[in-house]
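Lecture notes, unit on protein representations.

Consider one protein chain, 327 amino acids long.
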Amino acid sequence: MFKGILINKDEAGYRAAIETIDEALLPEGDVTVRVDWSSLNYKDGLAITGKGPVVRRFPMVPGIDFAGTVSSSRHPDWQTGDKVVLNGWGVGETHWGGLAQMARVRGDWLVPLPAAFSARQAMAIGTAGYTAMLCVLSLERHGLVPGSGDILVTGANGGVGSVAIALLARLGYTVVASTGRPEEAAYLKELGASAIIDRNELSAPGKPLGKERWAGVVDSVGSHTLANACAGTNYRGAVAACGLAQGMDFPSSVAPFILRGVTLYGIDSVMAPQPVRRQAWERLARDLDPALLEAITHEIGLGEAIATAGELLQGKVRGRVVVDVNR
């Protein structure tokens, strides 16, 4: 028996609750993991509250990532006692996820916990930080270097934004942080942002092309914010889009792409292949300052996750939320 958040949907409605679950009910998989830490992401907030069609099967344990220790394995790559991390692959959506004390998954979904990080630190990074690294890698592959110009990070106070700022600043880039919480300017500058702009500059309908302001963008917001970010990107610059906090729509035109040669990269963290995942985690171990993780991170117990999910969707949560599933 183990404790976890279980989401149900039936005649009584949609609900999430902490429950004691029989291990025999765990889904199919060739690796069973004792979860040490999980985290709370925007998608988890949607799943727990039911405010987005994230959960596809019921009942469901939410949690799109976890770090833990292998307790049993029938997979050739993993042995009992191995430290592992999982991000994405539909866990918490179509397969039971990490907001519980136990998980059973396919071994092909796991990556080794980098020696540089504890399980808690890995979840302080979590899917948000791993996604931020994928964004940075896409800008690097495009050819952007610190001397190319400013890099805009939207949704700067969120998990993706916070880690992206920390990574980019440590790599030597000049970062412009866009936020709806100007009172958090000191926090963003502590992470490495050189300038702060109000999100209202980007969140309303704008022109097809604006003044060239930045060489690259990491956007986790979507909608008008992404459209305006593209409109303000320098000639032959690049935009990495990974989120939809403002909306799924993209009210833009082809102007930035055919008149300025801007490239828009779509960043998928859920189904990214293993080589890409391992590269991202290797770079995180090298390029992310572990000391900054504490500034980014807020810790809660499993029993607090349901209430915190609502606060996260309301934009009241700064940075990353790590979940101690054993308290």
